[in-house]
Design brief:
The complex is a heterodimer of chains A (55) and B (239). With 55 residues, chain A is an all-alpha fold. Chain A has a domain of 33 residues. Chain A contains 2 helices and no strands. Chain A is rod-shaped. Chain B has 8 helices and no strands. Chain B has one domain. The chains are: A mainly alpha (55), B mainly alpha (239). Chains A and B meet through helix 2 of A and helix 3, helix 4 and helix 8 of B.
C-alpha cells in the first residue's frame, strides 16, 4: 500500500494532479447540475403560458 | 441543422442525452482510472510520473476542443445571427477554461519531476497559457458588456481571432525547439507510445469528452430555461 501511494517517489506530483483533476471535474458537475435544477424549479413555480398572469 | 437550433426543439431533442453521457463518462472514468493507476506499468524513463499523462492529455484535448467548438459556434452566430449559437459558444467557455486550467496545473506537476521546473516559457506551454487567457477574455467580455448584442458580437470576434492560436499550440512542438516533447499520439505515421499506455489514454479521452459534452448540453439547456423564466416573469407570469 505504501509503495502504491509513494508512486516510485513521484507520489506528491501524481496525487496532486489526480486530486486537482477530481476537484475540478466534481466542482464543474455539481455547479452545472445545481444551476440546472434551480432554474427548472423556478420554471415549475411559474404559471404556464396561457394561464392567467399573477399580476 | 438550423431547424435543430430552435431553442424549443433543442430542449426536446437533448432532454434524454445528459443522463446517458454522465453514465458513459462515469463508467469510462472508472475503467480508465483503474487502468491508469493499477494496470499500467511505470514507464522506463518517467517512472510512475507517466500516470499524470492520463489526466493531463485529456484535459488539454478538451481545452483545445472546447475553444474550436466556441469558434465554430461564433462563426455561426455572426453569419446566421442565431441566438442559440451565441448561447452554445458562451456556455462552452467556462468549461473550456476549467479544462485548460487543469491541463496547465497537471502539466506543471509533471514538469517539476521531469524537467526540474514547474514552468518554462516554452512555445507549447506559452501558447497554451495564451489559450487560458483567451478564455478569460471571452468570459470577461460577456460579463462586463451590458448590451447583450454588443457582448455577443465582441466575444464572437475574439473567439474567431483567437482560434489562430489552436494550430500554433498543435504545431508549436514542430515549429520551435521546445522543452515539451514532440507530438506522440495524433501524428502522421501513427502514435509512437506503447499500446499499454495508449488504450487507457484513449479511454480517459473518451471519458473527458463525454463529460464535457454532458456538462455543455446541460449548461445550454440551463441558459435557455433561464431566458424563458426571465421572459415569463417580465410578462407578468410570476413574481
Amino acid at each position: 500500500m505504501m509503495n502504491f501511494l509513494a508512486m516510485g517517489g513521484y507520489g506528491q506530483f501524481v496525487w496532486a494532479a489526480y486530486a486537482a483533476s477530481a476537484l475540478g471535474l466534481a466542482a464543474a458537475t455539481v455547479l452545472t447540475l445545481s444551476a440546472y435544477f434551480r432554474v427548472v424549479r423556478q420554471l415549475s413555480q411559474l404559471p404556464r403560458e396561457g394561464e392567467k398572469p399573477l399580476a | 441543422m438550423i431547424g435543430y437550433a430552435n431553442p424549443k426543439r433543442f430542449l426536446d431533442l437533448t432532454r434524454p442525452i445528459p443522463p446517458w453521457f454522465f453514465g458513459v463518462s462515469s463508467t469510462l472514468l472508472a475503467i480508465g482510472l483503474y487502468l491508469a493507476l493499477f494496470v499500467v506499468p511505470p514507464e522506463r524513463q518517467q517512472g510512475d510520473a507517466v500516470r499524470i499523462m492520463f489526466v493531463h492529455v485529456p484535459a488539454a484535448w478538451i481545452g483545445m476542443g472546447a475553444y474550436a467548438l466556441m469558434a465554430v459556434c461564433s462563426i455561426w452566430a455572426l453569419v446566421n445571427r442565431h441566438p442559440l449559437a451565441d448561447i452554445a459558444a458562451r456556455e462552452a467557455a467556462p468549461l473550456g477554461a476549467l479544462f485548460t486550467g487543469l491541463a496547465l496545473i497537471t502539466g506543471s506537476l509533471w514538469g517539476k519531476p521531469m524537467w526540474g521546473t514547474y514552468w518554462a516559457w516554452d512555445a507549447r506551454l506559452t501558447s497554451f497559457l495564451l489559450l487560458f487567457f483567451l478564455y478569460l477574455g471571452y468570459i470577461a467580455i460577456w460579463n462586463v458588456t451590458e448590451d447583450e448584442t454588443r457582448a455577443a458580437r465582441g466575444a464572437a470576434i475574439l473567439a474567431i481571432v483567437g482560434a489562430v492560436n489552436l494550430p500554433i499550440i498543435k504545431f508549436s512542438v514542430d515549429w520551435w525547439n521546445t522543452l515539451h516533447q514532440g507530438e506522440s499520439i495524433f501524428r502522421s505515421g501513427g502514435p509512437v507510445i506503447a499500446t499499454v499506455f495508449l488504450w487507457p489514454l484513449f479511454i480517459m479521452l473518451a471519458a473527458y469528452t463525454t463529460l464535457f459534452a454532458a456538462l455543455w448540453i446541460v449548461r445550454v439547456r440551463t441558459a435557455i430555461l433561464r431566458r424563458t423564466v426571465r421572459t415569463r416573469v417580465s410578462a407578468g407570469f410570476g413574481r
